[in-house]
Amino acid sequence: MRGMLKAAIDSLICFESSFHKRAPALQAKKRILILRKDGLGDCIIFYPTLAAYREFYKNDEMTLVFPIAFKSLSPLLASIENVIWFDAKKFSGDLLYRRKFLLDLHRKNFDIAIYPVFSREAAGDMMMRAAAAKETIGFRGQNDSLYNKVVSLPETVRLEIDRDMRFAESITGKKIVASFPTIDIKRLPNGTSDELIRKHSLDKKQFVIVFPGAGEPYKIWQPEKFAAIIDYFIEKDVMPVVCGNERERDLVKEILVKASHADRAVDLSGQTDLPTMAHLLARSKLYFGSDTGILHLAVALEVPSIALAWEGSFGRFFPYGDPNRNVAITVHPKTPAEAGSAPSAPLDLGKLHPSVRDISVNQAIEELEKMERSLDINAHDHE
Description:
Number of strands: 12
CATH class of the largest domain: Alpha Beta
Strand order of the largest sheet: 3-2-1-4-5-6
């Protein structure tokens, strides 16, 4: 019912937009919109293709819609004339913000609007409708009548980063390859990373980033298992640096209470913005933790990474890049009953998914030891 009401309101806003004055056309250039309203991790995966769009539309004015979570990484977007920071929470719950956002898109009078998201969402389609560009491009999906051009890919193209590149190739006509690292750490401010490194003497010892939190509770491994991994690192004389956002402080504390050597770990939960996190990752031995945006930041920085991945992400969002540096651990349920629900049923977002829940500490340690043997990660250094 709520969804139907929102759809009705959006239709009214789009109807209202037709009465609003639009920006005058530009001379000798076009206005290009690229719409990426999804999460931090999705946009980090998409980021390597952005340079291809910028080069292809080099004589035109480009506007990028990106999630507000990416805002502290905005130096990476210096080549884009206009960035609109999208707040998903406000768009969902604040009717005035939603109306203003959609009307502003319409007023900008885009010549070309591109929605390069494989799993298109109704809200994204609504934004494309509100923008009312002369030419609209998106992946094939529902409501294709909103688009002048839809892009289809073979089912064999499953990795999201490959889908992003193939979509961009269909527009630019040029081969695109993501070469890691895709994020240049020198373009990001240090934040408080130097201060934290000095405070905890991290420049004098090897350290790993442990990141237990995730945007959804069903992706978060059990605290006692994270505690066992922290003890494993300490016994190896490697400093575990446990990170998380402000909301994840209690989770980190619960983990450290269960660890036998918690006094030898560093708790940085709630103390790192994204640039600080990036600089800490770049100087760390590896990333170990949840399937979340910070995992993709680590991969973009070419930091060796081991992810506890739920089955919905495995093979689509992770692993990608160098298979020796990026490893996903998951448990594939043998039957729908073992998964807790049939594949077609809604996922119970309040419960830890079996594909993560059933990963054992021994499995994680085996992958850590394998990575240590296959890579000279002791020499890993980006700065």
